[in-house]
Amino acid sequence: MSSRMNRHLTKKQLKELEDQVKAERERIHNKLNLEQPHKNMSDSDSGRDEVDSANDDIIRHAELRFATRETLYLKKLMKTMALMDSEEYGMCEDCGAPISFTRLKARPTSTMCIGCKEESEREELQSFHGRQSKSLGKSISFSS
Ligand SMILES: [Zn+2]
Question: How far is the CA of 85 from the centre of ligand 1 (A)?
Fold first, then answer.
């Protein structure tokens, strides 16, 4: 564990990334908080008809999906901040190689170096094709 230290990042760079993550966290926080009163505004539902409530359901659903995505991002930001404290931040969780400052600057929540990220995306693609050909093979063996 202790061998995984972000020594390739200067204190100044780390601080810069930390500020970036904190600003992002604030932004999402405010976004989520701003939506709360909007959601609870349905006190005056005296003259509602079916169409109105159907529309409401769609909006509520969209808000929920949006909120979930934001919440997930918020969790990622919190995880990143915890990582920053542990000094393991900026190291690839796959191969342990340092992630370049340029990459972190563009995406402070990165936990993989560009090489591993590309590889994992390739694997994802391959397993997708693998699943496809597997099901194809199944249907062939069924018909024979
Ligand atoms: Zn890596």
Answer: 21
